[in-house]
Each structure stands twice: as structure tokens, then as C-alpha cells.
Amino acid sequence: MEEAAQNLGHGNKQLAERVVASSTARNLELTVEAVVEDYVGSMGWSQFLHVFLVSIAWVFDSQNTLVTIFSDAQPTSWRCINNSSSSLCMSSSSRGDVSSVCGLTPGTWEWVGGHESSIVAEWGLICDRRFLAAIPASLFFIGSLLGSAFFGCLADASLGRKRTVLLSCILSSATAFLTSLSPNIWIYALLRFANGFSRSGIGICCIVLATEVVGRKWRGPVSQYGFFFFTAGFFSLPLIAYPTRANWRNLYRIISLLPLSYSVLFFPFVSESPRWLLVRGRSKEALDVLKTFARRNGKTLPENLSLANPSEPKEGGENEALTRTCTKESLWRTKWAAKRMITVMIAGFGVGFVYYGVQLNVENLNFNLYFSVGINALMEIPAIVFGTILLGLTSRRLLFSLSAFLAGISCLLCIIFSHGKHVKKAEKSSAGSWAQLIIEGIGFMAASIAFDVLYIYCVELFPTNVRNFALSQSRLSLMLGASIAPLLVAAGRLSPSLSFLIFGILSIFSGVVSLWLPETKNAPLYDSLKQQEEEEKHKAAGQGNMQA
């Protein structure tokens, strides 16, 4: 009897040990960050392919944003109609500047490139109607401003990153094609607003979707890869616009086909963000995505692995709260996050104003439009290369502020070489024009670096449950600045020095404001506001103790 009792006790002990061992085996709970770093790999083949497929969408974002450089450009030359014997027309033509046509009788002159070369030529947006030409571009950026808030909310609260990009691509394609059918300036402006609203989901979601699946040391470089494709889209515009220079409508028709083709042929192979799936409570799907990445990298995840969700529990669940408030309430009611967001938006306003304004302002340079746009597009390449290298060597804050300062100083130097629009075509290769083009190119490169760095900076400043919304607010401020820029460009047709002066001042101001932001280099990506607040307080306390 005693032996049986001893055997029973021994058996219970072994069973208890197995239960404990089994419980321990089941409790390998890691964050997405730890799984990516320790098991999937910081940057393997699967992540490279994912980032590549996601980043292609930046091409369409660039094309839809910058197409107005050509479609809304003021023609550079005009001529008297052969059967016109008007001495006023002949004398005005000899002066060679576009403003000379303002006093001429309609029908006595024509644009050299044809009346369908741009909306300015087709709808007569010159002289007292010249500011109407700035309305479509401004409305485009206002649409982008509103769309950034809408798609950022949608991506965090319901659709996710992947489906938001898909929706944005399809809507961009549809609105670009409808724009080509515009019968007048007002319908055209309305459709540009719709196109700006539609394309907003591409940029804010692509950068988040790409950076949330790689290790922390790759976040900086990966954020820059998307801008390579943005540059490719920018560089493709002169190549598409030149053959279609006689009809601006064909330009819109061509760029409308590309995002639709991408949505059908490439986008189905993109994965959803595992971080977003986890925050939404879909941990099994998040784990499946990570297993797929690991398998394609030639690795396997532990059988007993589960994902830790650090989102603070609430009645009805964090995910229900997230859907209910669309993350806006959490961010704006958290004091530290709200202050940080406001600082980012102020800095973003100036950078957006300068980055887009300088691109649109190329028509106010004393140089050929297609060549100037090509040079600006080429300057994006060293901007991305230098930005990628410097992100690994310097702090985010220092790189952003110095880039903004350099862009501002370059714009101010351009004033020296601004000779107005009264420069004849034959004189556009003067030394002054070349110097202005070089300085403007350097300034644009610096503005491009600041613009690119702001995206990755914003990704690292905020946690997963509000990251897309925070990035949308940052983009909102960029678009607000960009929406005002076309008006300044229109004013620059009369006084180029004024436009460069304001660009310079605002860029320097953005660099100063950014000095109040915290540094995020090599910091982990947090998943909730509460987690980030606690971790940053703990880190600050530790640094204070070390200094003491």
C-alpha cells in the first residue's frame, strides 16, 4: 500500500513537471519586433520583395502629384497669325514676352505649341485670368490634405495598410482618366481635387507597410527605397509629357493606366502588416504573415511561439476602442503625443511648401521647362543616396534641420540670379541661368532629403496604433504647405524673387522648429501610446541617473 502511494506520488510529480514544462513551452511570447529581429531576419529576400512591390506605388503618387508641371504650364512662345496685319501684334511679338498678348485682339495671335498644349493655352488662363491657373494645383493639395486624414484613419481603424493602398490606386486611376475629359477649368479643378484626395492613401500607407516588416537598422534605408520610385515617377513625366506636348489630355490618359495595371498584376502578392493585424487582435493572421516571411527567408519560427500585444486593455477591447475613435482621440488627448504631433506638422508645413513649390516653380527659372524638370528629377537620386547614407551616420533631427537650412539658403541665393520672365528664348542659356539652375538644384536636393527624412522620422516618433494616423497628419501639413505653393508660383511669373524669398524663409523656419523633436535613431517601434510613454520615461530616467 505504501509502495503504491509512493508510485502515485512519483507519478503525480512527473505529471506536474510535464505540465510545467508544457506550460513553459507554450509561453514563448514575443513582440513582432523581437520575432523579426531574432527569427525572421532584419532584411531577407521575402522582405526585399515585399518592400519592392509596395514601393512601386510611389511612381503613381509622383506622377499624379507633379503632372501639373506640364499640363498647367504657361506656354513660352506665341506668334501672330499669318493673315493678321495688326501692327500692334507685330510689335508685341518682337518683344517676345507672353504678357505682351494681353493687349491684343483675340484671333490675331496663337500659341506656337497649339491651343491644347496646356490648360493655360486651351482656356486662356493668362493676363487677368492667370491666377485661375493656380486653382487646380491648390485644390489638388487641399484634396491631398483631406485625403491624408481620411486614408490615415481608414488604414489604422478598419481597412489596414494593404487594402487602403489598393483603394487609393484604383481611385487615382479613375480620377486621372476623368480629368482628361474636363470641359472647362472648373470641372478640371474639381477633378484635380478628387485626384489629390484619392492618391493620398498611397504615400502614407506604403512607407508604413514597408517599414513595419523589417528590423530597426533597416527602417531608415527601406523608407528611402520608396522615394527611389517616387523619383522614377518624377523622371518619367518629361518622357511622357514631351511626346504628348500637343495635347495635355493624353498625358492624363497615359498616367491613369499605370496604377490600375499595378493593382491587378502586382499588388495581390503584397502582405498585410503583421503589426497592424496584431493591434487589431488578429494575432493568428499576424503570425501567419511572419511565418511566410520566415519560410521565404529559409527560416522557421518556433512551434510554441505566440505574439505579445502590448496594447492597453480596455472594456470592449483595444480594437473596439480603436475603431470607435479612429485613433484620433487617443493621439490628440495624450499630451506628449499631441505636442510632438503639432511640432511635426509645423515643420512639415514649411518643408511641403518648399519641396512642392520648388518643383512647380521651375517654369519661373530662366531655362527650358523639360530640361529643368529632368534636372530636378535627377537631383532626387543623390538626395536619396545621401539621405540613406546619412540616416545611418547621423541623427534624424540633425539631418532634417541641416537639410532644411541648406534648402532655405539655396532659395535665397536664387534671388541673385532671378531676372523675371522677360528673358527671351535665345538668352536662356546665359551664365546667370546656369548658376540659378545649379543653385536651385542643390536647394531642391536638400529639400528632398528633408522631405524624405520627415517620413521615417514620423514613423519612429509614434506607436503602431496611431502610426498611420500620425503619418497622415504629417502628410496633411505637407499638403497644406503644398496647396499654397501654386499661388506663389503664379505670383512668381511676375516676380520670381518673391517666390524664392518666401521659400527660403519657410524652409529655414522648419529647420529651427524641428530642433524641439526627440531623437529616434535606433529606437524600437512601439505598439501603443501607453507602452511608448512608459518606455521613454524609463529611458529618460535611466539617462538622468547616469548623468547624476
From TrEMBL:
<dbReference type="InterPro" id="IPR005828">
    <property type="entry name" value="MFS_sugar_transport-like"/>
</dbReference>
<keyword id="KW-0812">Transmembrane</keyword>
<feature type="transmembrane region" description="Helical">
    <location>
        <begin position="370"/>
        <end position="391"/>
    </location>
</feature>
<feature type="transmembrane region" description="Helical">
    <location>
        <begin position="227"/>
        <end position="245"/>
    </location>
</feature>
<dbReference type="InterPro" id="IPR020846">
    <property type="entry name" value="MFS_dom"/>
</dbReference>
<keyword id="KW-1133">Transmembrane helix</keyword>
<feature type="transmembrane region" description="Helical">
    <location>
        <begin position="474"/>
        <end position="492"/>
    </location>
</feature>
<dbReference type="Pfam" id="PF00083">
    <property type="entry name" value="Sugar_tr"/>
</dbReference>
<protein>
    <recommendedName>
        <fullName>Major facilitator superfamily (MFS) profile domain-containing protein</fullName>
    </recommendedName>
</protein>
<feature type="transmembrane region" description="Helical">
    <location>
        <begin position="131"/>
        <end position="153"/>
    </location>
</feature>
<feature type="domain" description="Major facilitator superfamily (MFS) profile">
    <location>
        <begin position="50"/>
        <end position="522"/>
    </location>
</feature>
<feature type="transmembrane region" description="Helical">
    <location>
        <begin position="398"/>
        <end position="418"/>
    </location>
</feature>
<keyword id="KW-0472">Membrane</keyword>
<feature type="transmembrane region" description="Helical">
    <location>
        <begin position="438"/>
        <end position="462"/>
    </location>
</feature>
<dbReference type="GO" id="GO:0022857">
    <property type="term" value="F:transmembrane transporter activity"/>
</dbReference>
<feature type="transmembrane region" description="Helical">
    <location>
        <begin position="165"/>
        <end position="191"/>
    </location>
</feature>
<feature type="transmembrane region" description="Helical">
    <location>
        <begin position="498"/>
        <end position="517"/>
    </location>
</feature>
<feature type="transmembrane region" description="Helical">
    <location>
        <begin position="341"/>
        <end position="358"/>
    </location>
</feature>
<dbReference type="GO" id="GO:0016020">
    <property type="term" value="C:membrane"/>
</dbReference>
